[in-house]
Every structure is written in structure tokens, then in C-alpha cells.
Amino acid sequence: MSTKPDARPEPAETGTPLVQVRDLSVHFQLRGGTLARLFGQDTGTIKAVDGVSFDLRPGEVLGLVGESGSGKSTLGRALLGLVPATSGSVRVQDQDLAELNRGRLREMRQVVQMVFQDPNAALNPSMTVEEAVADALRVHGIRSASERRERVVEALERVGLSPVELFLSKYPRDLSGGQKQRVVIARAIVLDPSVLVADEPVSMLDMSVRAKILQLMLLLKQELGLTYVYITHDLATAKFFCDRVAIMYLGRIVEIGPTEEIFANPRHPYTKALMAAIPEPDPEHTVPRDLPRGEIPDAAQPPLGCAFHPRCPEAITGCGWESRDLRVLMESHWLRTETSYDEETAAIGELDHLDEPSTTAQIGRGGSAPVRAILDRIKAEDPDEPLWSGVTSIEAEGSGVSVQFEPADSPALRRAGGVEVACILYPEEGSG
Amino acid sequence: MTVDLTDGSLPVPAEGPVISARDVRVWYGTTRGAIRAVDGVSFDLAPGETLGLVGESGCGKSTLGRGLMGLLPEGAKRDGEVLFRGRDIFSLGSKASYGLRGGELGMIFQEPLTRLNPLMRISQHFEETIKQHEPSLSKDEIRDRALEVLRLMGIPPTRYRSYPHEFSGGMRQRLMIALALVLRPAFVVADEPTTALDVLVEAQIVQILNDLRRNFSTSLLLITHNVGIVAEACDRVAVMYAGRIVEQGTVTEVFKNPQHPYTRALLRSTISLTTTGLEYIEGAPPDLVDPPDGCRFHPRCPEAMKVCATQNPVNIERPGGGRVECWLVGPEDQIPAGGTQALEKEELTVVDEA
Questions:
Q1: Using the beta-carbon criterion (under 8 Å), do B274 and A280 form an inter-chain contact?
Q2: What ipTM was assigned to the predicted interfaces of this complex?
Q3: Do B98 and B133 form a contact (C-beta atoms < 8 A)?
Q4: Is residue A205 part of a domain?
Q5: Is the Cβ pair A239, B226 closer than 8 Å?
């Protein structure tokens, strides 16, 4: 690949994967109030990671890319057994992390190490550089102080913190951001791991140092034969740094494949949007205006159907339209100044009940006719709005109308060209 | 969907600049001596114009923004001259300066959640803000005015009585922008307004800022470390390094044809979708208590000459328009004999890294 330094060996397509993730889910139970817990009420779960599978091949750089709340960091932590899997499995060197006891899990962490995002938070302010890096060795049972020192010095030299004597006795507060991140990387490689999970390793750093740290990571990969999982929200560094990327949205992988193909031919509308949204330092390049609306939804109550459909610029009939989408549509109707908001809200009434996800939406308090008229007006404003194609019926009910939507499942990952995509625009190849 | 809130008439005659800053200095007192965070900065801002202030962390860009607003912490001092519509705002007393903020000078902060009161509804935020400046307005008039701005920010009227925690991060930043703009200030400072936001939301906010000049004819000083955002949303750019603006001009000019080596290095080190090689700036920004003699960038500058280490560069007209401070550009007749020889420097190592 022309964009990458030449010396990098091509990752072997075959060969036993170092890490196998199969149908992994990590769910967090929301605590709720004391009363709710006392009465055993369901307080809801956050599906941080929801049915994710991939293999990590020796020598590759796999990027996990997504916005905050996409589950990429939780997935990264699950690879080290730092969060327990709710279901599914993470196998490192053919051992299921869930079956290991604490001691064995700690041993396993010599194989998979982590580089954290914020070097200010990842280093103990009361430990010197030497103590911080040596601590990892101590935890993993290296008793000889001279051996620890020897390995600490070697690791610090590897990450470029030389002359080492100048850094050994320094505290984090004496170091610059880039130097701190080098210490964090030294601490991760001092145990001679095979895999590094790097969670946003450069996002807290200044532009002028980012490239330097990335270059260091490429060098270490080459010298130590490392395999990386690179977690980031930044598609630009992922494009440069990764062999394969997995784009994540609300706990799921929506597109995964070789970096070259994903960037040359993005398929999932979310991938396309992420790519289009990056402001380029070129005054002639402009970010398109038809970017997805809204933000990543509440993971405790993800959208029905495809999780991306409420923001998707390419959404169609079977994407899983529901009550909350109707609320958003009515609210954006009221954003237009020419509409008479006060009059229409009087006819529509409360909207808060629409936030309960459902394929049935009941609205109106002054009879069905005025509500229908308002809905017709909204539809006339934008007849192409895909939500309407997901409506199966609008019937008079109670003091207003009941809008029925066609239910849909969340799309599964399916092969499309050289990648896999989870989107109904890309049905199984060969079947359609 | 563009609504002109200015009723078609510009608040300021189009000729003169809204802000005219001359030799602005801001310093913080410390036990080690004074940190000269902003050290002699001059620029003009025309009505409806967006100026991007870009630089690494610690270059003084946020301090400059706060200094203009008069929002410096205790122990900080400012000096120089800043004319706002012809009136020197640095010489105003604290009361007069207080009266200027909000109605005339607006500010948009980085972290919207810490700037909104969690116990107050959005409606109350607007009532408080507007009442402070226009006590005669009735509640209905306030509501109409607030809803008008909120609509432009894409916040539906159904959310007017909500609390800050009911909004997402991007919505809160929209609220902050709406709160700053509802008083229709002529000049707004936006300090890293998108840093805490996700890529797609950042793009939405940048578009809103981009539309400001059309919708509000507000002059905007956009402080950011992201050169991509400058290219996207600004008319002109000022590149700041170690307390000084080293180059300024139109975004097209400066980005297409950067004159200062620091501008070139900053643009090159940015990783974008078209990046094919990793480039970085060696070393770290200087200590502002005791900045290096001559040009402050010379210890890191790959093109440094002998003159750069001894004499301050002269602020001159930039080829293609704008201003620049670099001996490479000139003026040649002020460089002493032999001054153009390459400077011999010690090699920069990780010890000096940022």
C-alpha cells in the first residue's frame, strides 16, 4: 500500500488469529432508584457492545472507529478482560477470557496490553517514570530489582525517552504531553506483549506531536512484531495507520474491511457521512450540507430497526421507523418559521409519550381530523421523507389518531465486495 | 431556511472594522516571573467577518480571546489598544466594560455543560439574559425572540421549557450559541466551540458558525487548533505562535501559499484524509517567561538563519496580502551582513518534545 511505510510486512491473510471475538456482547445494567431495585423493576440495560465478531490477525493494525458512545472503548477493554462479556466470547491465543480465573487473566494481560487515551490520567502523579514502568513488571512477578531496572531502561530507550537517566526520576508533571504518552507506551511494551490495544493514543495531543507518536507506534510494531487494535474517532489517522477498519455505531460493527477498500468505496451511509464530515485543511474543499441530523441516540433505548436510521440520509422503507421518528419529524416541522406552532401543538397535545420506543404512535387531543390535517401538511412539505413509506396505517383512535409503523429488524453484517456491511441497502450478495 | 434577524440593516457601517486591536499584551504574574501569554498582537475584524485564530496549546490564543472580552483571571494584566467600533474598550472602567459584554461582545465557550445552570430551564436562561440587557421586554416578547434564535440553531420550540441535562452535547452547544446571539452582539469570541464534540456534530456546529455572518452579520473570532475548521468556516486566519501572530491573511492565501515556516509546519503536520506521510514539528513551544531572543520559532525552525537568533523579525506586508513576521520574507535591507547564513543549532531530541 503506497500510503504506508514500505518496511511493514504484509499481514498474513491466513495464520491463526491472535484474538478471536465471537458474538460478543457487553451490557451494563442501569442502577435506577432504590425503590425500583427493591421492587425488582427493570431499570434498563445499556448494550455497550452488542453482538460483535472479528478476528485479529498477527501483525495487522485493526482500527475500531466510531463516535463517542459507539462502544469502541468498551470493546477494547473487553479484549483485555477489563469488562466481563455478557454473552459471546473473547479468545486470546485460543483461550476464552471468561474461563480464566483472576490469576490466569492477569497472566494473559502480558500478551495483550493497553495504551490509554489521556496520559495525564493514565499516570500516577506520585510515581516517577521508573516506578510507573517498573510497576507493571512488579505486578507480573519480576522480583529482581536489577532486572526490573534493566527492562525499564530498555523500554524507555525503545520509546525514544533518551538519555534515559534524564527521565527515570521525573514525575509526570515534569513531562510534556508527548513525553507522557511515550511513558504510557513504554509501560505497555515493557512486558513484551503481542497485542497492544491503543485507545485514542493521540487524540489528547497537539497536532504537531500526533504524527510523532504515531510514527513511534509504527516503529515499535516493526521492531517488536506487535499487532495493534487502534481505537479512534478520527478517520484520518485510521486511514493512515490501519490495515483494516471496523466502523462502529451504537455497539455494533456496521462496516468492516480492508482500509483501502473502505476509504475508496465506503458503503454504509454512516461510513460515508463520517468521511464527508472531516474538515480538510484545504479552503477549496467544503463539507457537504446534507450531513446526518441529530446525534448518537441514547444507548439505553436504541432506535428500533437499524440504529442509524433516524440520522441516515439514505434511509428507506424497511429501516425500522417508529414513534420517536414521528416526534422528530413534527419538531423539525415546527422549526420552520412559517408554521403556526401554538395552534398545532394545541391539536397534537403532549409528545413525551412518543419517546417510549414503539411501532405505534398515538397523537392528538382534539379529534382525528385536525391531526390528520397537520400530518398531511407535514407530508406535503417533504413528500420524499422516508418515514411515510414506513407507515402502514393512520387510523382514528381516542381523541386523535394512531399511526402504525412497519416493524423491522436490525440488519446483520453481510458481505458486499471486499467488505462486510450491516445495511439493508446491501442485501446478501447473490440473493438479490 | 435563512432568516435575517438584522431586519436587513447592518448594525455598523460596512467601512470601518468592528474590532481593531493594536499591540495587545496579556501577562500572568507567577513566582518565576511574568508569563507573557500574548505579546504584541494586532489585527482588524470587519463586520460579518470570521477570523480564525489557530495555534498549538499554550500559544496564547485562548488568553487573547479572554483578554479581548475582559474576562481574564485575577493576577493577569492587559495592555495595548482595542477599538470596538472606534471606542477603546481596554481603557473602560469595569462597570462600562461589564455593560458591553453580552449586548455588544459575546462569548461561546468550549464546554457548554459547565456554562448552563442545571437548575434553570432553557426558557429561564433566555429570560435572565435578555432581561439583563432589555428590562422593558415582556415575557412573550422574550419568548418570541428566543424561539426565533433557537429555530435558527435547529432547536424545536417544544424544548423551550426543558432543562440543560435533557439535551445532548451538540444541542447544548447550540443553546450556548443561541444564548450568545439572542442579544445580537456585533462581535463574538468562540473558544474551541467544537472540541468536545463528535465528528458529525462538529460538522453541524461548524456549519452554524459558518452561517452566522449571513444570519446575524456578526463578526466572529474563532479560536481553534484545527486548521480544517479554519479552512471550512473562516474568511481570514491568524496563525499564533508563542504569544505572537506570526502570519495573517485570507484563508485561501495563507493555506495555499504559507509564508511563515511555522504555518507551513503546522499545515504539514495535520493528518487529513489526503495525508500520505507523517510530518511533525521538532521540539516544543518556548517557555513564555523567558522566550528565546529574536524570532521565537527559530530553535524549531528548519529554515532558521543567523539573523533569526538575534533580532526580532519585522511585521511586514505579506506577499499576496496580509501580514507576516519572518526574516525569510524580509525586509532584506534590515538583515545585517552575513545574517542570511543558515543557523547552526543543537539537534532537538525527545527531551525538548511537546
A1: yes
A2: 0.87
A3: no
A4: no
A5: no
Is it the case that residue B9 has pLDDT exceeding 50?
no
pLDDT band for position A65 (cuts 50, 70, 90): very high
Determine, for residues B200 and A182 on separate chains, whether the beta-carbon distance falls below 8 Å: no
Segment holding A413, helix H or strand E: none
Quick check: B252 contacting A, CB < 8 Å?
yes
> What CATH number is associated with residue A11?
3.40.50.300
Within a 10 A sphere around the Cβ of A29, how many other Cβ atoms? 12
Half-sphere exposure in the Cβ direction for A233 (13 Å, CA): 18
d(CA B180, CA B42) in angstroms, rounded, equals: 25
Chain B residues whose beta carbon lies within 8 Å of the beta carbon of residue A170:
none
Query: A53 and A16: one domain?
Result: yes
Asked if residue A253 and residue A392 are part of one domain, the reply reads no
Same domain, A415 and A363: no
Query: Going along A95-213, which residue ranges are E strands?
Result: 95-96, 112-115, 195-199
Contact A395, A401 (CB under 8 A): yes
Question: Residue B228 and residue A370: Cα distance in Å, rounded?
Answer: 48
The verdict on A357 and A415 lying in the same domain is: no
Domain identity same for A388 and A417 = no
Give this prediction's pTM.
0.89
Does one domain contain both A32 and A103?
A: yes
CA gap A193, A113 in Å, rounded:
6
Three-state DSSP at B84 gives strand
CA–CA distances in Å: residue A237 to residues A213, A242, B36, B276, B352: 12, 8, 34, 11, 24
Is B165 part of the contact surface with chain A (CB cutoff 8 Å)? no
CA distance A200 to A63: 10
* CA separation for the pair A117, A122 (Å, rounded): 8
Number of domains chain A contains:
2
Distance CA B222, CA B51 (A): 6
B289 touches chain A (CB under 8 A): no
The rounded mean pLDDT for chain B is: 89
Looking at the fold, whether A379 and A423 belong to one and the same domain comes out as no
Closest to A327 in 3D by CA, of A301, A345, A346, A302: A345
Alpha-carbon distance of A119 to A257, in angstroms, equals 30
Tens of pLDDT, residues B270-288: 988 888 888 888 888 898 9
Residue A146: per-residue pLDDT: 93
Nearest CB among B3, B148, B284 relative to A176 is that of B284
